[in-house]
Amino acid sequence: MLKAVDVKSVYAPKVSHTTDTYKDFLLAVKNKGQSIKRVTVHILTLFYTSFAYFQ
Predict the structure, then answer these.
(1) What is the phi/psi pair of residue 11, to 5°?
(2) DSSP character for 39?
(3) What is the DSSP letter of 7?
(4) I need a surface site. Which of 11, 27, 43, 55 has the fewest CB within 10 A?
(5) How confident is the model at residue 55 (pLDDT cuts 50, 70, 90)?
(6) Number of neighbouring beta carbons within 10 Å of residue 43
(7) pTM exceeds 0.70 for this model
(8) CA atoms within 13 A on the CB side of 39
(9) pLDDT tens digits, residue range 1-27?
(10) Which residues does 36 contact at the CB level (< 8 Å), separation at least 6?
(11) How far apart are CA 34 and CA 9, in angstroms?
């Protein structure tokens, strides 16, 4: 998905996984020249509020 979309910011929780899918995600973020910003409660609240508004 990251390869097909113009990504401005990447947010993810601070976790560690060893699955191939997660490794592919990290590689895609790196290849886009992005860094991962840590998700906070404030960011999630803004996301879910905006999501509910546009439905």
Answers:
(1) -115, 135
(2) P
(3) -
(4) 55
(5) very low
(6) 13
(7) no
(8) 12
(9) 667 778 788 888 888 888 999 899 899
(10) 10, 11, 12, 26, 29
(11) 7
Rounded to the nearest 5°, which phi and psi values hold at 37?
A: -95, 140
Q: Residue 52 above 90 pLDDT?
A: no
Q: Are 24 and 18 in contact, with CB atoms under 8 Å apart? A: no
Q: Single out the residue of 10, 11, 7, 8 nearest to residue 41, CA to CA.
A: 11
At 46, the amino acid letter reads L
What totals of helices (H) and strands (E) does the chain contain, helices first?
A: 2, 2
Q: Domain limits of the chain?
A: 10-54
